[in-house]
Specification:
By secondary structure, the chain is mainly β. It has one domain (about 1-360): Porin (Beta Barrel). It is about 10% helix and about 55% strand.
Length: about 375
């Protein structure tokens, strides 16, 4: 029973790793539709109220009060093949949602509110459903506040996060609620069309007790930098983000070595936007470094959705002076060969697609 529990916890943490980073198979590369359309770029790039989800300092540059609301639909198709076995990882579509509101209190102070909600795909590890994760869900609420003076902005957002897991359809944990924070800096050079941003999101520790085992499944800390350039203020914007996600504390269990053989994740995102009066188009590319340090067979079975390259398209259209709609599509495909500890080979193929719709209101 202990072995089964530990395997189930390992499965949960690896799936939660995807949720936490929002860069892998079980969660979108970004929550906001505008951000997603540019490959997830958002640390140094303005995206209206939804910027509070990427860098709270950026809401200090908003000229109007604004609100954003959206939802994302994601599907994954994964297949594996080894020397002795092959099959399909059974998955179901996942829905994710987001919302954000920002308001200027004074010329220098802005405040907002935001939420995200993520439900992972239900997944079976093999065709007969011997290993099944029924659900992993994560939701968070943020209250960003920013102070802006002479183009420099600092923002902080306390985070309240709720996380729940259902394991094997039988073993379940009580939801965990914990606190963290997001702090960001930004500097705007309007004559150059350049914004530079830095953002740090703290680790959020979620503690559980399951059948006598005390363990943590945590949201990892991450730190990133970003820059955007509206080329000669022509409406053509190029943006670049880099962030590092600390995976070392994804999973902790009392009095045991819980090294899962995972690398820290390095994320690079490149985005392009052309904005004209009443509409905008976007495109992007996102690269995520390999999560694995150990190529152990059990890691690959438990976490088959490791995809490095994501391609995105998006756009916005103004429905009126105060209302606009957003659309974003992201697609990823991979075909990777791995090695077992005993030297045998393993091939994993997967494709991912997400469609995100959003609406914005300025007032």
């Amino acid at each position: 029973m202990k072995t089964m529990i530990k395997l189930s916890l390992t499965m949960a943490v690896l799936l939660m790793a995807t949720a936490a980073t929002a860069t892998e198979g079980l969660s979108p590369i970004a929550y906001g539709a505008q951000t997603q359309g540019m490959g997830g770029v958002g640390i140094g790039m303005m995206h209206g109220a939804e910027s509070s989800l990427s860098n709270p300092a950026l809401i200090g540059y908003l000229k109007n009060n604004s609100a954003s609301l959206g939802t994302s639909y994601m599907t994954i198709d994964s297949k594996y093949k080894s020397n002795s076995d092959s099959g399909t990882f059974d998955t179901e579509p996942a829905l994710n949602s987001y919302g954000a509101l920002s308001s200027s209190i004074t010329d220098s102070v802005s405040i907002g509110a935001a939420f995200t909600n993520m439900n992972t795909l239900n997944s079976s590890i093999d065709d007969d459903g011997a290993f099944a994760l029924s659900q992993v869900a994560k939701s968070r609420v943020l209250i960003p506040v920013s102070y802006n003076i002479a183009g420099f902005s600092i923002g902080i957002a306390p985070i309240l996060e709720n996380q729940s897991m259902g394991l094997f359809g039988v073993l379940a944990t009580n939801p965990s609620t914990a606190f963290g924070f997001d702090i960001g800096l930004a500097y705007d050079l309007p004559s150059w069309g350049v914004i530079v941003g830095v953002d740090y999101k703290s680790k959020i520790k979620h503690s559980y007790d399951l059948d006598g085992d005390n363990f943590n499944v945590n949201t990892p800390s991450e730190i990133g930098v970003g820059v955007s350039w509206d080329v000669l203020n022509t409406g053509h914007t190029i943006a670049l983000d880099y962030k590092k996600v600390d995976t070392s504390a994804f999973f902790e269990i009392s009095d045991e070595n819980t090294d899962l053989g995972l690398n820290d994740i390095n994320v690079f995102a490149l985005g392009y936007q052309y904005e004209a009066e009443g509409w905008a188009v976007r495109a992007g590319y996102r690269y995520i470094s390999d999560l694995y340090e150990s190529k152990a067979e059990e890691l690959i079975y438990i976490f088959p959705y490791n995809t490095s390259s994501h391609f995105t398209l998006g756009g916005s259209y103004a429905l009126s002076d105060s209302i606009s709609g957003d659309l974003a599509i992201s697609y990823a495909i991979s075909d990777k060969d791995y090695s077992y500890n005993d030297g045998d080979s393993f091939n994993m193929k997967n494709s991912q697609m997400a469609l995100t719709l959003g609406v914005n209101y300025s007032f």
